[in-house]
Design a protein that fits this description.
Layout lengths: L2 H15 L1 E3 H8 L3 H13 L3 E4 L2 E4 L10 H4 L4 H12 L8 E3 L3 H8 L7 E4 L2 H6 L7 E4 L3 E3 L4 E3 L1 H8 L3 E6 L3 E3 L2 E4 L2 H12 L1 E7 L11 E4 L6 E4 L5 H9 L3 E4 L4
Length: 255
């Protein structure tokens, strides 16, 4: 692949994803990380992208609203609210909790109330939800702001979760299939894996639209998960598979 073609593909990928790691870009293009660094330097000189620690981001806002937090939070709202309440009911008073940056996890946070005192998150909407509370201690990870998702990503965010421990981690993903959980962005996957390692119990929340879906990046298999919370429309066949693998599956009541 010629240099110009590589750089056009990089620009298009970043325009869609907005933010990506060097490793993610190298895998996508099929070249070495050092080649990606050179291409990004050229694109940066042309004011197309901006290099960051461990990756790059586009300087032009994507046309698609696929990753916009506020837009995504208008999908399956009733199911997410029911899911959020069902998941929050699983948390014991006094437990410290890691909360992922997905919109479903935001709905869980809304239902936690005064049950938890310490919240560890990379989600700006979750942090803002508790920012005015004098009953909650919020630990916000470091990292680079991914504006359209309202989340912090990158090596500093991963390091934050690698150094912390929580009783429970509450996460979501782009899809769950018979072989495990998937997500659509490598930078988020890296952080979620650190979250999983830092928690005694791991809960994943998926509305029914995520069942049977495989996104770009494999996140984890079922050995890393303790509980899956879903809504009443989740396919029974896959729910049965999860239970057969030893997972506890909590089905939220119909909204």
């Amino acid at each position: 692949m010629q240099t110009e073609e590589r750089q056009m593909k990089l620009e298009a990928y970043l325009h869609k994803a907005e933010f990506a790691s060097l490793e993610e870009l190298a895998k996508y293009i099929g070249v070495s990380v050092s080649t990606i660094r050179r291409d990004l330097a050229a694109l940066e000189s042309g004011k197309v992208v901006r290099r960051t620690h461990g990756g790059a981001r586009t300087l032009q806002p994507p046309k698609s609203d696929e990753f916009v937090f506020n837009v995504r939070d208008t999908h399956q709202v009733a199911e997410k609210e029911s899911l959020g309440a069902a998941c929050a009911a699983l948390i014991q008073p006094g437990q410290n909790v890691i909360i992922d940056s997905g919109t479903t996890c935001f709905h869980v946070a809304k239902h936690l109330g005064d049950k938890v005192a310490q919240i560890i998150t990379n989600s700006l909407p979750v942090a803002n939800l508790f920012s005015a509370s004098n009953r909650h201690e919020v630990h916000l990870s470091g990292g680079v702001i991914y504006p359209r998702l309202g989340t912090l990503v990158g090596p500093h965010a991963v390091e934050t979760f690698s150094r912390m421990h929580a009783a429970v981690a509450i996460l979501s993903g782009s899809g769950i299939a018979e072989d495990g959980v998937y997500n659509s962005h490598a930078l988020i996957v890296d952080i979620q894996r650190a979250m999983i390692r830092g928690a005694a119990k791991v809960i994943f929340c998926f509305d029914h639209t995520k069942f049977g879906r495989r996104s770009t990046f494999f996140l984890c298999d079922f050995t890393d998960i303790d509980i899956v919370v879903t809504d009443a429309k989740a396919p029974e066949s896959l729910v049965d598979v999860l239970r057969a693998r030893g997972l506890e599956v909590v089905v939220a009541p119909k909204p």
